[in-house]
Write the structure tokens for this entry.
Amino acid sequence: MIKFPIYSPEEELHLPLFEEKKVQVFIKRDDMIHPFISGNKWRKLKHNIIEVQKQNKKHLVSFGGIWSNHLLATACAAAHFGLKSTAFVRGEDIANDSVFMYRLYGMDLIFTDRQRYRDKKALFADHFADDSDAYFVNEGGAGKLGARGCAEIIDELEHSYDQIFCAAGTGTTAAGLLTGIMRKQPQARLHVIAVLKGAGFLSEEISKYSEGLTNFDLHTDYHFGGYAKYNDELLYLVRDFVSATGILIDQVYTGKMIFALMDMIRNDKFKPGSRILAVHTGGTFGILGVKEKLYDLLR
Ligand SMILES: *Cc1c(COP(=O)(O)O)cnc(C)c1O
């Protein structure tokens, strides 16, 4: 086993809306696992790192953009576990907070144009075919091993719930949660909030990584224009939530999930007495992606 003790409590949220609608809302604090090896990115890396150690590999190779929670987690986890890390980064070299942090944690970066970035297996083979230490980690940590780690979120729960919410990019986290729900909380319904536009394809992805499970609702109307897009309403929701709870959320993932949750509660989608869990999937560093905009808004 690997040494990485984690702390991720379930906390009840007390907001006026929840009291008014007589629902109980809790949040699973996976953001507290680690500042950068955070949330679902640790969950998705965990079984990959166990595999790396089993296979005696020494080098994590992965893929992502210039604001990737996954690359930040991978760089930091590699440093923590004494591994080397390399990332193929989509696009041009740019100085932003994330890229700076990747480098600070010792990750080698290979900036790759969008065309070549598409074929990840080919990129890996071109650069690392002869490197027996190198281990391929899919973009976003997506895949079966990733889902297995995310199922453990449900195994850890101390209470039972009627509704469980998560944000989705690749759908791996949702697939893992679904597997865990079937195992430990079969009464719960999973609500998956897609953060990108045209995310109908996610249904199939989620089923693929969860051995065909389909008992979830995919919500595709809370993307705010697409991946990493936002408007003032979303940023105000983030500000209101953070200032009312003391829990930091980002506008790319958890902000959209909380927005959806509040919207559905406001519209009486859940009976009084319902017990609802929001999974905080971490990634709070992403708030720096809108810091200029927030300076203006909060002044
Ligand atoms: C990456 C990420 C997600 C998306 O997870 P998937 O498994 O790709 O669906 C959700 N929330 C946060 C905070 C993330 O960083």
Notes: Residues 222 and 260 are 6 Å apart (CA to CA). The beta strands are 10-13, 24-29, 59-64, 84-90, 108-112, 134-136, 163-168, 189-194, 216-219, 275-280.
